[in-house]
What does this fold into?
Amino acid sequence: MAKPKISSDWLGGCSGCHMSFLDLDERLLDVFALTDIRATPITDLKHPDEDGVDVGLLEGCINNSAHIEVAKMMRERCKILVAFGDCAVFGGVPAMRNFFDLDEVMRCGYINTISTDSEGMVPTDPELAVPQRVQSLNEVVKVDVFLPGCPPSADAIYYTLTELAQGRIPLITGDYLNWH
Ligand code: SF4
It folds into this structure.
């Protein structure tokens, strides 16, 4: 029987969730034995297979128009979509900006930071159009599995992937949640 195909990508996040995936260490071999890892930031293949994958994981919140496109493509191409980490599950750290005016946030990020030179400017590329507020993944596409944590622990990721690889929807309980 063919191994289930898994793809992942990142949206508005810090890549820490994927780093936690690498923290599986030798258990990565178990995951590789059970699954066919396709496009991920780690394999550096850019897009999920056009004919689809079984499981898609998305790290990060929705924080610009490119994130929406990536989220929709993964949703169209995967059977089960996992919100991977707190940013995807509820907006996480980037959602702290929702408490402030967007113009103020953009000026703070691109013009008023100490490291910005006198020519600093807010980007105007439409691909980077920023919505008024950060959104969680399920505000934009349907999510099947929520894997919280900042980042999710390697144990939680291992449990989630091995359950999905064996055709089961994981029940992510307090045993797998870490708060650090
Ligand atoms: Fe980074 Fe935490 Fe967001 Fe994952 S959930 S992308 S580790 S800030």
About this structure: The pocket of iron/sulfur cluster is lined by residues 13-14, 16-17, 59-60, 85-87, 92-93, 150-151 (CB under 6 Å). Helices lie at 16-22, 27-34, 65-77, 86-90, 102-110, 154-165. The chain has one domain: 5-95+131-177.
